[in-house]
Amino acid sequence: MKIRIVAGGPDHLIPELKNYDSSPGDLWVGVDRGTFILLQKGIKPAYAFGDFDSVSAAEKENILKSDIILNEYQSEKDHTDMELALEWAMDQKPKEILLFGATGGRLDHEMINIQQLYRTISSNVEVKVVDLKNEISLKLPGKYTIEREDLYSYISFLAFQGEVKGITLKGFKYPLEKASLKMGSSLCISNELVNKNGTYSFDSGIILMVKSRD
């Protein structure tokens, strides 16, 4: 099972969601205004989470008429709507969770949405933040194979916290061998694969990987 969560980020930064169309058993989930965005795009979410303070009365009425399982919260609470939805999604033990509408709006919400990936990193669930131009994920130490994609021209690696040690890039335009990548360093920004696939590995730390397109 895969779960796709749509929050209320700027509409123009949300990719064509039907390109991520669900297989039987997969779920779409709306977060606050993301629920209305899904309905506008002809996708009925199975569940919705939020205080719904970012929708108009007419939009909320549309949501209420849509026979969605609604998890409604008070506006004043200790967790964001996205965090509550992600916690629920992780409890379902899916194979993958994609987060849409999580970037491009308020910077505080964008930053915490990306940091939410840290809550999932030790699980067996692959969780990514996806918008029109980027795909963001966190990686623990190890060796990974990565394939070149027409959609994403650039691949960047950032130290998520502290220092990443022993980073090695093979099959990239700018290869590395057992390098150190410190938080705040731009050493691994805007790299490219030169072959159909490549590998990256590192010994310690946490990497924030961003695939991007122009």
Automatic annotation (TrEMBL):
Keywords: ATP-binding, Kinase, Nucleotide-binding, Transferase
Protein name, entry field: Thiamine diphosphokinase
Domain Thiamin pyrophosphokinase thiamin-binding: 142-208
Pfam families named in the record: TPK_B1_binding, TPK_catalytic
Gene Ontology biological-process annotations: thiamine diphosphate biosynthetic process; thiamine metabolic process
Signal peptide: none
EC number annotated for this UniProt entry: 2.7.6.2
Alphabetical list of SUPFAM superfamilies matching this protein: Thiamin pyrophosphokinase, catalytic domain (SSF63999), Thiamin pyrophosphokinase, substrate-binding domain (SSF63862)
GO molecular function: ATP binding; kinase activity; thiamine binding; thiamine diphosphokinase activity
Broad class of enzyme this protein falls into: transferase
InterPro entries: Thi_PPkinase (IPR006282), Thiamin_PyroPKinase_B1-bd (IPR007373), TPK (IPR053149), TPK_B1-bd_sf (IPR036371), TPK_catalytic (IPR007371), TPK_catalytic_sf (IPR036759)
Source organism superkingdom: Bacteria
